[in-house]
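## Example pair
The file below holds two records. Each record gives the amino-acid sequence first, followed by its structure token line.
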Amino acid sequence: MLYRSLRRPAPLLLERTSILAGPLLSCLVVLILCATATWQLWQLWQYQARQQQSLALLESSLQDTESRNRALQEELSRSFDPEQIQPLLREKYGWIDTRDLLIKLSTPGSTTEAR
């Protein structure tokens, strides 16, 4: 009888540990997942901060370029003379205004041969 009473607690202890092992394992898995998610969020936050810095740098560069462009446009509009465009185009590119071309009309009966 004494032998029987000593043997019984062992299966109860195993049952209790197996009952507790499932929730403990689940808690451990959840903790690992939470730690991994926290680490990933931290990495994303750092990446987002670097991207914000790059964006701020690009925006400041864009504003500088736009202000320089506006200043150059204002300088050009102050110093530009529209009457000078035709001589400049003729001089630089050899362009001719069509209003400056002479048109020769020939009579229908006469033919001119190209040489």
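Second record, same layout:
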Amino acid sequence: MVLALVLGVVGIVCFPLSLVSGGWALVSILSARGEGRRPKALAFASLGVFLVATAVNVTVAMIGAEANSERKAQAAAIAEKLQGRIEGEQLDAEAACDLARQQLISQSRYDAISCRAGYQPGRVARLEVDTEKRGSHAELTFCLARAQRWYVLSTPADGRCPASPPAQ
């Protein structure tokens, strides 16, 4: 039963182990009662830890689902805002910033995304973006190119965009 208790505690961060612990504890309690003896206190402790682990895991899953829903709503709002603005020959700085935001939001959750001044239009446009994520700051360079519409070509680590877009 000590192992079941340990699995239950680990199950707080690894839900499948919590299920094993809860099942083990339940089988132990039911077996003891079926044999007419009193179940061990560790079996009840394991069952209690299982219930706590289940509550923690369900709460974390709900928070994650809500955050994911918020990201999808933000991405949809940006996509709607971009309609009709990325099909033309030229890309303005605001549309370029929205393309970069859309790319970032589709990958992860950010606390802040801001585009710096100095947008460089061209066949391959260059945009510098500052991000904040869980207290950590990052400076990214976005290279944008046009096919049927403008899109994020790359985010090079060295900050250099290619001189021309890839052959179509």
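Notes on the second record: The mean pLDDT is 90. The first strand starts at residue 112 and ends at 115.
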